[in-house]
């Protein structure tokens, strides 16, 4: 006989990534955050050390989606990007033959770098995707320009800015792969938090991202992870939430958030198959 588990309270409606003022009244710029820092980064330096210090914020800023479910000591943005970069190293051989894997790994390491100042804005935070993209682009311009523009002739900064833009534009096979890895890493963390909380937290709303994974090789890994989740909840004699339980509003928010993400930019299944290498 399975022991009944007490469920945690329902998730909060929004994360804590942005304030009401940031979504309505003031025009956000990198200085919105920079002016709150105790130590201001030194710009125009030929040393990368000021940039290294600013990177600490990726280690301390949390991935906000989990905190809506009162997971307070969860992963940081840097945690997420690190596992993503490791996952790229395990790219299946048939897919790896079509990619520049070194570029994929570097892209995984920088794709959320703007969140050092912007924070982790989630689909439910009321920030339209164009506004989120603007904030992130301005932050990358600051990081790779004033902060890194004179370091090593500005080459490293320019490369990071180009990698970030390639990920955002999502038009290359490498960016499609890294977008899928991004979603796969979220699915892994979803299952791990449900296990860690012994079924008291149901994170099924995050399973939506599995529907946005396009590459067949990554789809197979996602299916394996979701099968693990089903076995975990079955062992607890419980039926977890899934796609059918996600509200229409939340699905719409998530769809907007992930629109243009990976090969899902394709307008029909045939085009998506070509973009992902299927015949």
Topology:
Layout lengths: L19 H4 L6 H5 L14 H6 L1 H5 L3 H4 L9 H12 L4 H4 L4 H10 L4 H4 L10 H19 L7 H15 L3 H24 L19 H20 L12 H11 L10 H7 L4
Helix pairs in contact: 6-8, 6-12, 8-11, 8-12, 10-11, 11-12, 12-13
The arrangement of helices and strands along the chain is: HHHHHHHHHHHHHHH
Helicity range: 40-55%
> In angstroms, what is the radius of gyration?
19 Å
Percent range for β-strand residues: under 5%
Task: Characterize the biggest β-sheet.
Answer: none
The overall pLDDT average reads 86
Q: In terms of structural class, how would the helical and strand content be classed?
A: mainly alpha
Number of helices: 15
CATH topology: Hypothetical protein af1432
Total count of strands: 0
| Count of distinct structural domains | 1
Keywords:
single chain, 279 residues, mainly alpha, Hypothetical protein af1432, 15 helices, globular, disordered N terminus, disordered C terminus
Structure, briefly:
By secondary structure, this protein is mainly α. 54% of the residues lie in helices and 0% in strands.
Description:
With 279 residues, the chain is mainly alpha-helical. The chain has a single domain, classed as Hypothetical protein af1432, CATH 1.10.3210.10. It is 54% helix and 0% strand. It has 15 helices and no strands. α6 (77-88) runs antiparallel to α8 (101-110). The model is unreliable at 1-5 and 264-279 (pLDDT under 50).
């Amino acid at each position: 006989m399975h022991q009944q588990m007490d469920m945690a309270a329902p998730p909060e409606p929004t994360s804590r990534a942005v304030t009401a003022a940031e979504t309505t009244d003031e025009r956000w710029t990198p200085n919105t955050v920079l002016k709150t820092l105790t130590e201001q980064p030194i710009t125009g330096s030929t040393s990368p050390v000021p940039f290294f210090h600013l990177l600490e914020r990726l280690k301390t800023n949390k991935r906000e989606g989990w905190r809506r479910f009162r997971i307070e000591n969860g992963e940081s943005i840097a945690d997420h990007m690190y596992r993503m970069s490791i996952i790229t190293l395990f790219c299946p051989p048939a897919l790896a033959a079509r990619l520049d894997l070194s570029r994929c790994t570097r892209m995984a390491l920088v794709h959320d770098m703007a969140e050092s100042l912007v924070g982790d804005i989630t689909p439910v935070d009321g920030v339209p995707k164009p506004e989120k993209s603007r904030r992130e682009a301005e932050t990358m311009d600051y990081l790779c320009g004033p902060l890194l523009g004179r370091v090593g002739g500005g080459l490293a900064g320019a490369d990071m800015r180009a990698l970030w833009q390639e990920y955002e534009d999502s038009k290359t096979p490498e960016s499609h792969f890294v977008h899928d890895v991004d979603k796969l890493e979220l699915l892994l963390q979803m299952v791990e938090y449900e296990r860690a909380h012994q079924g008291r937290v149901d994170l099924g709303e995050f399973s939506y991202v599995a529907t946005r994974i396009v590459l067949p090789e990554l789809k197979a890994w996602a299916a394996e992870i979701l099968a693990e989740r089903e076995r975990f909840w079955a062992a607890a004699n419980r039926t977890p939430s899934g796609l059918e339980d996600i509200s229409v509003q939340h699905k719409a928010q998530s769809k907007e958030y992930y629109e243009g993400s990976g090969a899902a930019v394709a307008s029909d299944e045939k085009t998506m198959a070509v973009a992902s290498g299927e015949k």
